[in-house]
From TrEMBL:
<comment type="similarity">
    <text>Belongs to the CcoP / FixP family.</text>
</comment>
<keyword id="KW-0560">Oxidoreductase</keyword>
<feature type="domain" description="Cytochrome c">
    <location>
        <begin position="130"/>
        <end position="211"/>
    </location>
</feature>
<feature type="binding site" description="covalent">
    <location>
        <position position="233"/>
    </location>
    <ligand>
        <name>heme c 2</name>
    </ligand>
</feature>
<dbReference type="GO" id="GO:0016491">
    <property type="term" value="F:oxidoreductase activity"/>
</dbReference>
<dbReference type="InterPro" id="IPR036909">
    <property type="entry name" value="Cyt_c-like_dom_sf"/>
</dbReference>
<keyword id="KW-0679">Respiratory chain</keyword>
<dbReference type="InterPro" id="IPR050597">
    <property type="entry name" value="Cytochrome_c_Oxidase_Subunit"/>
</dbReference>
<dbReference type="InterPro" id="IPR009056">
    <property type="entry name" value="Cyt_c-like_dom"/>
</dbReference>
<keyword id="KW-0249">Electron transport</keyword>
<dbReference type="GO" id="GO:0005506">
    <property type="term" value="F:iron ion binding"/>
</dbReference>
<feature type="binding site" description="axial binding residue">
    <location>
        <position position="186"/>
    </location>
    <ligand>
        <name>heme c 2</name>
    </ligand>
</feature>
<feature type="binding site" description="axial binding residue">
    <location>
        <position position="234"/>
    </location>
    <ligand>
        <name>heme c 2</name>
    </ligand>
</feature>
<dbReference type="Pfam" id="PF13442">
    <property type="entry name" value="Cytochrome_CBB3"/>
</dbReference>
<comment type="pathway">
    <text>Energy metabolism; oxidative phosphorylation.</text>
</comment>
<dbReference type="GO" id="GO:0006119">
    <property type="term" value="P:oxidative phosphorylation"/>
</dbReference>
<feature type="binding site" description="covalent">
    <location>
        <position position="143"/>
    </location>
    <ligand>
        <name>heme c 1</name>
    </ligand>
</feature>
Length: 301
C-alpha cells in the first residue's frame, strides 16, 4: 500500500531524489575537469596584497572518493529499500513488517512467563511477587494517567486502592471492568423529581444528609420523599448498585470529590456520563489478568 494520496506525490519525490543525485554527480564531474588543468590555468585572476593569487584548486581526492561512495550508497539503498517515491525496494522491507516481526519475537519470549499465570486464580497471582511487579508495570504504563500512579484516582476517576467499588471489586468484576470498559451513565433526573430547581435543592440536601454532610434538615425531609426516582439505580437505601455502576451515596467516597449542594443539584439537573475505556483491544487476556490481580491486591492486602 502506498502512503501517498495521489501518484503525483510519488513522482514529485522521485523527481527531487533523482535531481539531487544527478546534481551531485554533475558537480563532481565538473570538479574533476578542474583537476586536469595546470595550476596556472586554475588561477581565478584575483590577486590580493600584491602577490597573493587566488587559485581554484580541485577538491581533495579522499573527499571526492567519499562523495562518490555516498552516491553509490544512495542508489544501492533506493534499489533495495523503499524510499524512491512509492517503489518498494528489492528486499521487500517495510517498517510495519519489522515492527510485527519484533513484536512476535517479544511475544514468544514472554509467552512462557504469562502461561504460568493463565491458570492461577487472581488471589494467588496477587500474592506472587513477580506477577504483582508485572501487573504494577502494566498499570503504570496504561492506567496511571487516569487513575494515578498510586491508583488513588482523581476528579472523575475512581480510587482503585480503596474498597469502594462502582462496578464491584470481586476479581471477575474487576477483570470485566478492564476487559470491556465501563460506561457510567446517570441521565438528567430533574423531570423525575418535579422539574424545578427547588426540587433538586431538596433532594440534594437529602443526599447530603445520607453521608453526614452539613445540610438543611427541613429541605432533606422534603427531598427524602422524592428520592424514589433515584432509588431505581442507587437503591432504596442509597447504597448503590454495581450492575449499573451507580455509586453508594451514603459513604464518604465521592467520585468528584466531596460535593456541595450546588454540585449535586448540577448532577441531578444535567446528569453525567463517565467512560472507562475497554482494554481487550490493547492488552492481551494474560496482561489483563495480571493488571487486574494487581488492582485487586491494592484493596486486599
Ligand atoms: C482514560 C482514562 C482511564 C484509563 C486509561 C483507565 N481507566 Fe479505569 N476508569 C476510568 C473511569 C473514568 C472509570 C469510572 C467509570 C465510571 O464512572 O463508571 C474507571 C473505572 C475503572 C474500574 C472500575 C472501578 C470501580 O469502582 O468499579 C476499574 C477496575 C478500572 N477502571 C481499572 C483500570 C485499569 C486496570 C486500567 C489500565 C489497564 C484503567 N482502568 C485505565 C478511566 C480510565
Ligand atoms: C439511571 C440510573 C440513575 C438514576 C435514576 C440516578 N442516578 Fe445518580 N448516578 C448514576 C450513575 C451511573 C452515577 C455514576 C456516574 C459516573 O460514573 O460518573 C451516578 C452518580 C450520582 C452522584 C455522584 C456520586 C459520586 O460519588 O460522585 C450523585 C450525587 C447522584 N448520582 C445522585 C442521584 C440522585 C439524587 C438521583 C435522583 C434524583 C439519581 N442520582 C438518579 C445513576 C443514576
Amino acid at each position: 500500500m502506498s502512503d501517498f494520496i495521489s501518484s503525483f506525490w510519488s513522482l514529485w519525490v522521485m523527481a527531487i531524489v533523482a535531481f539531487g543525485i544527478i546534481f551531485c554527480v554533475a558537480v563532481l564531474l565538473f570538479g574533476a575537469q578542474a583537476r586536469a588543468a595546470t595550476a596556472e590555468d586554475r588561477t581565478t585572476g584575483h590577486v590580493w596584497d600584491g602577490d597573493l593569487r587566488e587559485i581554484n584548486n580541485p577538491l581533495p581526492r579522499w573527499w571526492v572518493g567519499m562523495f562518490w561512495l555516498t552516491i553509490f550508497f544512495a542508489i544501492a539503498y533506493f534499489f533495495m529499500y523503499p524510499g524512491f517515491g512509492n517503489v518498494k525496494g528489492s528486499l521487500g522491507w517495510t517498517s510495519a513488517g519489522q515492527y510485527e516481526a519484533e513484536m512476535a519475537k517479544g511475544d514468544a519470549q514472554v509467552a512462557p512467563l504469562f502461561a504460568k499465570y493463565a491458570a492461577m486464580p487472581i488471589e494467588d497471582i496477587a500474592k506472587d511477587k513477580d506477577a504483582n511487579g508485572m501487573g504494577q508495570r502494566l498499570f503504570l504504563n496504561n492506567c496511571a494517567q487516569c487513575h494515578g500512579s498510586s491508583a488513588k484516582g482523581g476528579n472523575g476517576f475512581p480510587d482503585l486502592s480503596d474498597n469502594d467499588w462502582l462496578w464491584g471489586g470481586k476479581p471477575e468484576q474487576i477483570m470485566e471492568s478492564v476487559t470491556k470498559g465501563r460506561n457510567g451513565n446517570m441521565p438528567p433526573q430533574i423531570q423525575a423529581i418535579g422539574g424545578t430547581p427547588a426540587d433538586a435543592k431538596a433532594v440534594a440536601n437529602y443526599v447530603m444528609s445520607l453521608s453526614g454532610l452539613p445540610h438543611d434538615a427541613a429541605q432533606a425531609s422534603i427531598g427524602k420523599g422524592k428520592f424514589m426516582a433515584c432509588a431505581a439505580c442507587h437503591g432504596a437505601d442509597a447504597k448503590g448498585n454495581v450492575a449499573l455502576g451507580a455509586p453508594n451515596l451514603t459513604d464518604k467516597v465521592w467520585l468528584m470529590g466531596v460535593p456541595s449542594e450546588a454540585n449535586i443539584v448540577d448532577q441531578i439537573t444535567n446528569g453525567k456520563t463517565n467512560v472507562m475505556p475497554e482494554w481487550h483491544t490493547k492488552l492481551k487476556p494474560e496482561q489483563i489478568r495480571l493488571v487486574s490481580a494487581y488492582v485487586w491486591s491494592l484493596s486486599n492486602k
